[in-house]
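Service request form, structural biology core

Requester: graduate student, group of Dr. S.
Request type: structure prediction, single chain
Budget code: on file
Notes: please return the result as structure tokens.

Sequence provided:
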Amino acid sequence: MDPVTIKDIAHALNLSTSTVSRALRDSYEISPETKRLVMEYAERLNYRPNPIALSLKGSSSKALAVIVPQIANNFFSQAINGIEAIAYNRGYHVIIFQTHESYERELANIQQAVSRRVDGLLLSLSSETSNVSHLQALIDQGMPLVLFDRVAAELPVTQVVADNFGGAYAATSHLLQTGRRRIAHLTIPPYLSITQERLAGYRAALEQYGVPFDENLVRYGTFGPDEAGPLVDELLALSPPPDAFFTASDRLALGCLAALRERGVDIPGQVGLLSFTNSQSAHLLNPPLSTVTQPAQEIGQLAAERLIEQIERKHKSTGPSTMKLPTTLVVRESSRALPKLVS
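Core staff response, request fulfilled:
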């Protein structure tokens, strides 16, 4: 059933919506008898005030909600640093929520955020979020919202992202330039925007170098614990096996590195390894890990700036747009070209 609104109560009791609204707020302007009628009817129909509407009608809370999958992820911790820097300088404080990759937690976090009457939301989708109708409902009710990193193209909101296609294209091209041709791609759930963009960049590089795309070389992770080992085993069992691994996240990078070492696979002697990761210790791994890094802090800063512009200048907004920031390929020992592989 649709939730009961003030208009429903007003219609049923033949009152104006403003009278019902004041009665629910226990205003002195409304007679005790009218208040009693309104309160009893509202209680009978289990009426609950809309927290978004309340926050939009009230004064600014000077608070922004940031909802991310996991703060421990290097990318998100760096993005939050950027968000907080901008928010602090503009007089806002930040409330941080984690979804832990759960759609249900994402819904609960949003509800909690709007109940606290935040002025706007910065959000990166959980890996379980394939339906974004809850975000469309926020937009329809006028809640300022900016998506970053993991976004939804179908939503009419400002979105701030890294150039995932370009980063994956550069990474795959580098591995191909070292002479490798059987490049496995370990990635994350297929319906996430960053997954699709990175897979597209990987495929475009293969096509550019005349290497057929082989879907058997692509494996999708779920952010589960210790999932890289079984995926690596499946790939190594192929004939012929991969001569390189390109992973799409911090977790998969470290899991893949550990799995290959445990199985006695020489990196980069037998296989090259390269990953999307914002880990600041990639150069300390054995071997030092080649990476595609994203401008996480800048993404956070830009997302916060755009959200605050929405909040403070709603009627002068230039409308939704997608802002794409470049990634950086850093080549280290793990993807070093080997003389025997170079044609």
